[in-house]
Design brief:
Helices cover 42% and strands 16% of the residues. It is α/β, with parallel strands linked by helices and 292 residues long. The structure holds NADPH dihydro-nicotinamide-adenine-dinucleotide phosphate (NDP).
Amino acid sequence: MDKIIDGKAFAEKLRGEVARKVAAIKASDNIVPGLAVVLVGEDPASQVYVRNKGKQTVEVGMQSFEHKLPDTTSQDDLMALIDQLNGDDKVHGILVQLPLPAQIDEKAVINRINPQKDVDGFHLDNVGRLAIGDPGIVPCTPLGCLMMVKDQLGDLSGLHAVVVGRSNIVGKPVASLLLAENCTVEITHSRTRNLQEECKRADILVAAVGRPEMIKGDWIKPGATVIDVGINRIEAEGGKTRLVGDVEFSSAEAVAGKITPVPGGVGPMTIACLLHNTLQQACTINGIAVPG
Ligand code: NDP
């Protein structure tokens, strides 16, 4: 098998599976999953994400609802929209694109979403479920990481996993997922001592730091599986920019057993997992099992 984990191909396969299952529940129960994406403000990167999400939602046979609000939107107005979407039977998933403008309390908005329509897995109810190992919705990027690792390694039981980064959206949920797979999990962060030595113990190394190419080849145990979540834009030749991960790919590739590239690794999996989560919520809300 190839050393480089092709996230683009994996995401395409996952979207194909979601599309097949969407067609199945439409045929059996006349259910068409609907995903509502809420964008507040004009952030160009967020606009691109929202456009891509809408396009891929429609491609798998779901309904896409986009709500674009000005960056002057008040907390009350945004809460009222969330309430409206919570009560809309056509909407099975609600995603509020982050970050939100400063006048808005992000946590309050996320926790206003009906947990059964929370497709990001950021609602406290779903965060708690993941923490105690109850079924629920898992954040998209961590879910994509886990799917790729399991696809490569199969049974993860007993493997030593090191997660670099402890954010609520990536590091902590990735660690919870790996723990649930019976890995021995180590979470590291900016105060960790001897980070290089900790990384070198990893059979599975997940980098979610946001520091371009911080992790070098000599931080990696030979044969380890390396999942690079980082997306960093750096200066390139000719005044251009290019995307790199948190791992220095050239040196890491020589040592790792398996490695995700940036771009084309974890990134494409995130939207595919969002669609997977929307399908799951549509089935949960309607009291049916997700088709096999
Ligand atoms: P955050 O900034 O929220 O968290 C970064 C984490 O890295 C923190 O826990 C921080 O530690 C730790 N950290 C920072 N510097 C160091 C250091 N020198 N040594 C060790 N640990 C360090 O970032 P996110 O988790 O939101 O994102 C991480 C990366 O993943 C970013 O590049 C982001 O763009 C990318 N990303 C990619 C996604 C995708 O779809 N592929 C989705 C989400 C994020 P401390 O807690 O101590 O401050």
